[in-house]
Specification:
heterodimer, A: rod-shaped, B: about 375 residues, 28 strands, nucleus (chain A), mRNA transport (chain A), transport (chain A), protein transport (chain A), membrane (chain A)
């Protein structure tokens, strides 16, 4: 790679810098950079200057960088962890209730995020509508899969769902209700229709009463309609009536409505007539109110409310398909959201997940939804061809995406923990690539690795930090990192550094460290030697010569001193030998002499030795001192004690 | 706990600090500052802790913390302390120490003064030799900082250059610093040593060194008893809380096995020092209570608690001796409570003032508890 002529302007993030020209793509965990994009961009700058080059950091997962979405990730992480830890022993109803609660928690988090975004960025922002669609889908999945509502309550839940999510009409409703005489408002009947279509009977009746009081001529019609609406049988949540009872009652009521319509009771008021037709479940009448319903699933639920209130979950698919066809009427083709909802109505869970994965730009939604469904034991272990199941695959993808974020990587760790098959491997690979900018961050990463017994990663991180410290001349830090990793080799390296410094400068640097090594001294032989050697110096300084002498001898005979240091040790023995008082005993002196001989004999290159005057002088002096000491000590030891 | 308000703030919090109250103030603290870390764009933020206007039925304060102002900060916020009512000193991972001023009339923050390259590794002039500044402590107008480069700096708030610098004060990283007396400071480092430095003396050696016996476990935080200046508490990398009496011996008086991971902060309660608070990487925040009337309270009624540890302390005969130092295995017990019921990620920082506690976590949330001793 040739060097650029001028300094290339670098766009550097997280230290991923590149140099030179050409176009490489160093992929981070989620970067997935396309070389195509890079060449395209460079060409587009039109600089023309051949020596300018840039590095673009390509981010695949743009969503995770949006500030408000971070709350979503964090809060859902908390819910996810709670779900994983929740008790599996609860069976039956209580477990189901627990899972429904978890689902509601997820939804409330989505809603909270939506509101924050709405406030911060405005309703037109794309993310708000995406979040709203996500909540819609999740809510439906909760009704159909998690709660698995049965015929009866199913309809009530679907009604709630529609009321919550079809809010295009809300402003119109508010406008009419807050006006002085609602019945005179031009949109009055629209609002009544809305209430009827959504099954909000009480509110519809309330508005109609206003109309009736304003228009006494239609009092008769009003009373009948009001009566019909009041008597309409609806499924109840409790066990107060069985399905057959409901069906019977409903049949009666339906016939009554039919009679009134055929008698022409409402003939004079077309609005009321159309309401009656709606009550009878007349599809054409309902379809006329398309703009008020705005979506085909609203149409579906209205249809079900007024023609098949006891619909069973498995029958939904037929009604759904026909509703969509009737509503769209061949004018427009279904959008992705419609397809997803259709798949849900058909109870094709895998299809739902697949469609969502394709449409959404981020794995958050599918990962959490699949995990929840898996906890409901609804997904068969439908093994994908590379061995893990769908839940694990999605969680791995999501967590990998988190790891490409400079800050959210910590959440990803917990997700990997709960992927039994490949989670650990993924985590090992990802955690090594987290940039360690400060010691505190390195400590956190280390703690994560230690808790999961990832010894290799611990060693490699400690080595990186220790090398950094060593390069910055922070020997104490380097030592503390090698102690944490129990890395004897590195400790030896550090001790060698200290000893080298000592040989060069003649004194120890960082005495506070060496003096206070404590049990960590035992980590490596070299370190022990260093500690003991320093102790020797201290003993000498305190004039405890006998102990110092003993220590010195131990250092040499126990072979923990490196060979290169023996000369220095022997030289250190010189002043002890030269003392007025005899310190070394005969035995010790013999030992010393032996060491000296070992040292000089072991050197094959006598030439070098002889050329170096200092060395020869030293050896000669040592020999002389040893001999003198020996002489004195023999005499001393031979003398009878006490005289 | 109902009286804890939480807020997710989309940034990992590394430090939280209450703004100090003026001397004669009667009301509880209501403004705190937070610093973030590990972001491309770190921020110092000032918050108001809940809406004081909405007093609930029992006079409790509801409402979650809301942001007053914030400002961009270069590098991770490693440590932070209020210099006075308006100024806050912040230590950065780039080695810079900055004083920010909070303008209360228009609720903005501005950088008042900056000491760039307060901490550096090899050479002050090379562009990328910055070393993280890990601890800062102030005693208006003096500011002391320590860093990963083993350097101790003494600044004065109004002076451009450092008043004094002790280079290579330590061969390992200095993790935290606190004032022992007005002229003496305490530092802890990553080889498990607690050192006292006398700033009046010109020599660059500590006046005393204390260390743990056994493994040289790095110490991360230190705090001094507010009234009895010889009692010092430190927290270590293995989650151990050590209490030292610096008048005697070089070893700690008691070692309390606390957390399962690094202890990031330890604080004595400033006005009620029988209470100690610690927070840790394992996600828990513990309240240590040695007040003598603990034996009156049946322990199983204590909310959110883990097991109460029966550590013996006697205070009966020696009322002046603090409960923290006693070695007599007789009377009262110390009550330890975990204040976080569902722990997930690390609690990086806590601060306590009056009846209020604020803490921040790696789960990007801040929590305020304004009824600590209810």
């Amino acid at each position: 790679m040739d060097e650029p002529d001028t300094e290339p302007p670098l766009v550097v993030r997280d230290g991923r810098a590149g140099q030179g020209r050409g176009c490489g793509a160093a992929g981070g965990a989620g970067a997935g950079a396309a070389a195509q994009a890079l060449t395209g961009s460079v060409a587009a700058t039109g600089d023309g200057a051949p020596s300018s080059s840039r590095v673009f950091v390509v981010r695949r997962d743009q969503d995770i960088y949006i500030h408000t979405l971070r709350k979503l990730f964090n809060e859902s992480h908390g819910i996810f962890m709670g779900l994983q830890r929740s008790e599996e022993e609860l069976a039956g109803k209580s477990r189901k209730a627990q899972l429904v609660q978890v689902s509601k928690n997820y939804r409330s988090v989505i809603r909270a995020c939506m509101e924050d975004m709405h406030q911060a960025l405005g309703p037109a922002f794309l993310q708000v509508s995406i979040l709203s669609a996500m909540e819609l889908i999740w809510n439906l999945c909760e009704i159909l899969f998690v709660e698995a509502a049965t015929a009866g309550p199913l309809l009530l839940r679907l009604l709630d769902w529609v009321r919550l999510h079809v809010c295009d009409v809300d402003s119109m409703v508010r406008e009419v209700l807050s006006s002085e005489s609602p019945s005179k408002h031009k949109l009055f009947w629209n609002v009544v229709d809305v209430f009827v279509l959504q099954g909000r009977m009480d509110e519809a009746r309330h508005l109609l009463s206003k109309e009736a009081s304003a228009n006494p001529a239609s009092m008769n019609m009003y009373k009948i309609l009001d009566d019909l609406m009041k008597k309409m049988p609806v499924p109840s949540l409790g066990n107060t009536q069985t399905l057959t009872e409901l069906e019977l009652k409903w049949q009666h009521w339906h016939e009554e409505c039919q009679r009134y319509l055929q008698d022409g009771t409402f003939a004079s008021n077309p609005h009321m007539e159309s309401i009656c037709k709606i009550l009878l479940g007349d599809e054409d009448a309902i379809l006329e109110k398309k703009e008020l319903m705005t979506t085909w699933y609203h149409f579906l639920v209205t249809r079900l409310l007024y023609s098949h209130p006891t619909v069973k979950p498995m029958e939904l698919r037929f009604y759904a398909q026909s509703s969509m066809d009737l509503f769209l009427g061949g004018e427009s083709s279904p959008e992705p959201l419609d397809l997803i909802l259709m798949a849900a109505f058909e109870f094709e869970m895998h299809q739902v997940i697949k469609e969502c994965s394709i449409v959404l730009s981020n794995w958050w939604f599918v990962a959490h939804l699949t995990d929840l469904l898996d906890h409901c034991k609804l997904l068969q272990s439908h093994n994908l061809y590379f061995g893990s199941n769908m839940r694990e695959f999605l969680l791995l993808e999501y967590a990998s995406g988190l790891f490409s974020h400079h800050s959210l990587w910590q959440l990803g760790v917990d997700y990997f923990d709960h992927c039994p098959q490949f989670g650990r491997v993924y985590l090992e690979l990802h955690i090594e690539r987290v940039p360690l900018s400060t010691e505190q961050k390195a400590l956190k990463v280390l703690r994560i690795c230690e808790q999961r017994q990832m010894h290799e990663q611990v060693r490699s991180i400690c080595k990186i930090m220790a090398m950094k410290a060593l390069r910055n001349n922070r020997l104490g830090s380097a030592l503390s990192w090698s102690i944490r990793a129990k890395d004897a080799a590195f400790a030896t390296l550090i001790s060698d550094r200290f000893l080298k410094d000592y040989c060069e400068k003649g004194c120890f640097s960082d005495l506070d460290l060496i003096d206070n090594l404590g049990p960590s001294m035992l980590l490596s032989d070299r370190l022990t030697f260093l500690g003991k050697y320093r102790e020797f110096h201290r003993l000498y300084g305190e004039k405890r010569f006998a102990e110092a002498a003993r220590l010195l001898l131990t250092l040499m005979t126990a072979h923990i001193a490196p060979c290169s240091f023996w000369m220095t040790l022997l030289t250190d023995a010189l002043p002890l030998l030269e003392q007025k008082e005899v310190i070394f005993s005969a035995e010790q002196t013999y030992e010393l002499m032996r060491c000296l001989e070992d040292l000089t004999a072991g050197n094959p290159d006598k030439q070098k030795f002889q050329d170096d005057d200092v060395e020869t002088t030293k050896v000669e002096m040592l020999r002389l001192a040893l001999a003198r000491n020996l002489a004195r000590v023999i005499v001393k030891e031979g003398t009878v004690e006490g005289s | 706990m109902e009286d804890v308000s939480a807020k997710f703030v989309s940034q990992k919090i590394s430090r939280t600090r209450w703004r100090p109250l003026p001397a004669a103030a009667l009301q509880p603290p209501d403004v705190f500052a937070t610093g973030s870390w590990d972001n491309e764009d770190n921020r110092i933020s000032i918050w108001s802790a809940g809406d004081l206007g909405n007093a609930g039925l029992n006079g409790e304060y509801h409402g979650e913390p809301h942001l007053l102002c914030d400002i961009q900060h270069n590098g991770d916020v490693m440590d932070m302390q209020f210099l006075d009512q308006e100024r806050i000193v912040v230590a950065s991972s780039t080695g810079t120490v900055t004083i920010f001023r909070h303008h209360q009339n228009n609720q903005t923050l501005s950088a008042d003064h900056r000491w760039a390259k307060a901490h550096y590794h090899v050479d002050q002039d090379t562009s990328c030799g910055g070393a993280a500044c890990t601890g800062v402590v102030c005693n208006n107008p003096e500011i002391v900082t320590v860093g990963e480069d083993g350097r101790i700096n003494l600044f004065r708030a109004d002076q451009k250059d450092a008043v004094r610098t002790i280079d290579n004060a330590d061969s390992s990283t200095l993790h935290a610093v606190t004032f022992l007396r007005t002229t003496e400071i305490l530092t802890v480092n990553s080889i498990g040593q607690l050192k006292i430095w006398d700033l009046r003396q010109q020599r660059n050696e500590p006046s005393q060194i204390f260390s743990l016996a056994g493994d040289r476990v790095p110490l991360h935080c230190v705090d001094r008893h507010p009234n009895q200046q010889h009692i010092v508490a430190t927290g270590g990398q293995d989650g151990m809380l050590s209490i030292w009496d610096i008048r005697q011996g070089t070893m700690p008086v008691s070692l309390l096995n606390a957390h399962e991971a690094e202890m990031w902060e330890v604080h004595f309660h400033p006005s009620d020092p029988d209470h100690l608070f610690t927070c840790s990487e394992d996600g828990s925040l513990w309240h240590w209570d040695t007040s003598t009337n603990v034996s009156e309270k049946p322990s199983f009624l204590h909310q959110g608690g883990r097991s109460t540890a029966y550590l013996s302390h006697s205070t009966m005969n020696q009322s002046v001796v603090s409960a923290w130092l006693s070695n007599d295995p007789t009377k009262d017990r110390m009550e330890i409570t975990n204040l976080i019921p569902n722990q997930t990620l690390s609690v990086n920082s806590l601060d306590v003032l009056g009846p209020c506690l604020v803490y921040g976590t790696d789960a990007e949330a801040i929590y305020v508890n304004r009824q600590l001793f209810a």
